[in-house]
Specification:
Elements (H helix, E strand, L loop, with lengths): L1 E8 L15 E8 L6 E9 L8 E10 L10 E5 L14 E4 L8 E9 L4 E9 L14 E8 L1
Antiparallel strand pairs: 1-2, 3-4, 4-7, 5-6, 5-8, 8-9
Length: 151
């Protein structure tokens, strides 16, 4: 269930002198119950697990629709080879894939090839609905990270 606040403001530019200026606004809080999608990244698998420097890995990402409504176009899945901080909507990863349709309660594994760069410790980050175009019941479960080492 979602909570919303609506507001109305009559004569918002205050260009008319009135006997009372305190009654030009009204707010109303209401709740909307219903069903929504909820995309969640539930796992990341990297192959090979210990890649060589400047190679490419296969990243298998499992995305679940934990909501109660199917979605025909679930947006993009962006993948970063090394991104420790939270990604923002619209940021482009090192590789991406189209998630496509996802029925309610179903998971899908999407494999993307990602270049890993130089040797060292890395943080793989994946972001489902990375352009934030899908209205979801929960938005905080769209990203997941996995620590790995490049040899």
């Amino acid at each position: 269930m979602s909570k919303f606040l609506e507001a109305a403001f009559v004569e918002a530019n205050c260009s008319i002198t009135e006997s009372s200026e305190t009654n030009n606004q009204l707010t109303k809080t209401y709740r909307v119950s219903g069903t929504r999608t909820d995309l969640a990244v539930t796992s990341i698998s990297i192959s090979p697990a210990a890649p060589a420097a400047n190679s490419t890995v296969n990243v298998a990402v499992t995305v679940a629709n934990q909501g109660t409504v199917s979605i025909n176009a679930a947006g993009y899945l962006d993948v970063w080879a090394n991104q420790s901080t939270t990604a923002v909507c619209g940021a482009e990863g090192n590789a991406w894939a189209d998630i496509g349709s996802l029925a309610a309660g179903v998971t899908k594994t999407i494999t993307v090839q990602v270049p890993v760069g130089a040797a060292g410790s890395k943080v793989m980050r994946v972001f489902a609905d990375s352009w934030c175009e899908t209205v979801e019941a929960v938005e905080i479960n769209n990203q997941l990270t996995k620590n790995y080492a490049v040899q």
